[in-house]
Amino acid sequence: MKSVEIAKASGLDKKEVDKWIKKMKSEEKIDSPKRCYDSIKI
Question: Domain count of the chain?
C-alpha cells in the first residue's frame, strides 16, 4: 500500500503515516517491494 492509501484508510495524516513507516523500516518490520509501496514482513 502507498502511504496515502494507509492514511486514507486509517484517518491519520499522511506525514504521521510517513513517520511511522520510516520507523518501522528501520526496525525491519516492513519491506518496500517497489518504490512507494510498503508491505509487512512475515
Answer: 1
* 30 close to 39: Cβ distance less than 8 angstroms: yes
Rounded Cα–Cα distance for residues 42 and 11 (Å): 25
Q: What's the chain's Rg over C-alpha atoms?
A: 10
Q: For position 17, what pLDDT does the model report?
A: 92
Q: Please state the pTM of the whole predicted model.
A: 0.67
pLDDT digits (tens, 9 = 90+) for 4-35: 998 999 999 999 999 998 898 888 888 777 66
Domain assignment of residue 9, given as a range: 3-40
H-state helical runs in the chain: 3-10, 14-26
